[in-house]
Amino acid sequence: MSARAVVPVVVVLLTALPVLALCVGQALRASGRRGAPGAPGAPAGTWWRRTALVVVLAVVALTPTVAATQSGGARVGVQVWFVVDRTGSMAAEDWGPGDPVVRGPGLPAVPAVQRLDGVRHDVVQLTRDVPGAFYSVVAFADEAGTQLPLTDDATAVRSWAQTVTQEVTAGSAGTRRDRALEVLQRSLQDAQDRDPGMVRLVFYLSDGEQTADEEPGSFTAIAPLVDGGAVLGYGTAAGAPMRQHDGSLDPDAPYIPDPQDPSRPALSHADEAALREVAAELGVPYVHRDGPTPTADLVADVDVAAIAADGRADLSTHRDLVWPFALVAGVLLAAEAWAWTRSSSRLRGRR
Q: Where is this region: Disordered (predicted)?
C-alpha cells in the first residue's frame, strides 16, 4: 500500500498534528478527572473518539492506494529501430549487382555500387515488410545520434534512407562499431518505459569495420530490450576503395588514398566476424547482404501476439483504497453527531 497524496503531505501534517495533539491532551486530562464528582468537560471516551476521527480523516486526505494489474491494458504493436553505419567505409564499392570494374593493377574487380546503397535498399524494404509500425533511425559515424525519433510515418523513413550519405571524409575520426550503443540503449529504454506492451525490433546495418584502437563495448546489456531483428552485413573481405565525400554529391569524387601509399586508393574490408559477434550479443541472427534481394524473411517469424503474451501488455496501475477509511470516518462522525444531540437535549431539559 502507498499514498497518492491528493492533499500535499505537508498540508495534512500541519493541519492534523495540532488537532491530534489537542484531542490526545484533552483525552488524557479527562482520564485524570475520571471519578471526580461534577467534573466539567467531555468524558475521555469522547476525546479518544475525536482522536480516532482526526487520524482517519488524515489517512483519507493522503489517499492510500494499492497496486493493481489491468490485463491487456497497454497498447500492443511493433517498434523498429534502424541502426545505420554512415562511416566512410560504407562508401566502399563492393555491394550489389553493378558491372564489375577494375580500377588498377592489383585491385579486385568489384561492382561499382556502394555498401550504403545496400543500406538504402534494405531500410526501404524492411519498412514495407513491417507496415503500420513505429520506426526510428539511429545513425553513427564519428558520433552517434537519433536521425528520426519513433514515428509511424513510413514515408519519412524512406525519405531519410534515400538521401542518407556517408560522413564527410575530412571529419572522420575512426570507426567504432559500438558508437551507437549508448544512444540506442537510451532510446530502447525510454520506449519500453513509455509503451511496455510494444514489440521492439532492431536492425543493425554495417560492414563491421573498426579502425579505432579502443575495445568496442558489448551490446549484451540491451539484449533484454530487443525482441527481434537482425544484424545486416555489407561488403566483402577482399575490400574495395571508397570515394571521398565533402558534402556535395559528386559521383566522380577522388578515392580516399591509402595512408601508407597515397598513390593507391585505400581499401575497406568488411568484418563479418565482428558483425556476428554483435548479432550474438543482441540475440538476433546475422545476415550477409550482397544484393537487393527480398527482406521479408527477416521479419517472417515476428508474431506480435505471441511475444506480447509474456505479460508485457498487462498495465500496472494503482487503485485508490479510500472507501474503508471514509466509512470509518462516517461512523465516527455519526457517533459525534449523536453525542452532540444527546448533550444538547440534556441542556434544554435542565433549563
A: 243-268
Statement to judge: residues 159 and 213 lie in one domain: yes
At 38, is the pLDDT very low, low, confident or very high (cuts 50, 70, 90)? very low
Question: CA–CA separation, 86 vs 199, rounded Å?
Answer: 26
Residues 21 and 148 in one domain: no
CATH of the domain at 250: 3.40.50.410
The grid cell for 307 is 511475444
Higher pLDDT, 339 or 238: 238
- CB 325, CB 333: distance < 8 Å: no
Q: Each residue of 244-255: pLDDT tens digit? A: 998 887 878 899
For the chain, helix (H) and strand (E) counts, in that order, are: 8, 13
What mean pLDDT comes out for the span 254-268?
A: 90
**Contact yes or no for 162/155 (Cβ under 8 A):** no
Is 102 part of a structural domain of the chain? yes
CA dihedral 183, 185, 186, 188 (to 10 degrees): 120
Residues 331 and 254 in one domain: no
Are 128 and 206 members of one domain? Answer: yes
Rounded CA-CA distance 87/207 in Å is 10
Structurally, how many domains does the chain consist of?
A: 2
Q: What is the pLDDT of residue 309?
A: 61
- Which of 125, 300, 310 lies closest to 228, judged by CA? 300
The SS3 assignment for 147 reads strand
160 to each of 14, 134, 210, 248, how far by Cα in Å? 58, 15, 25, 17
The answer to the question of residue 314 being in a domain is no
Domain shared by 62 and 178, yes or no: no
Within 8 A by CB and 6+ apart from 181, the residues are 144, 217, 219, 222
106 is in which domain, residue-wise? 78-308
Give residue 259's region: left, alpha or beta (phi > 0; psi -120 to 50).
Answer: alpha
User: Which residue spans within the chain are E strands per DSSP?
Assistant: 2-3, 64-70, 78-85, 100-101, 110-111, 134-140, 144-151, 199-206, 228-233, 240-241, 267-268, 286-288, 315-320
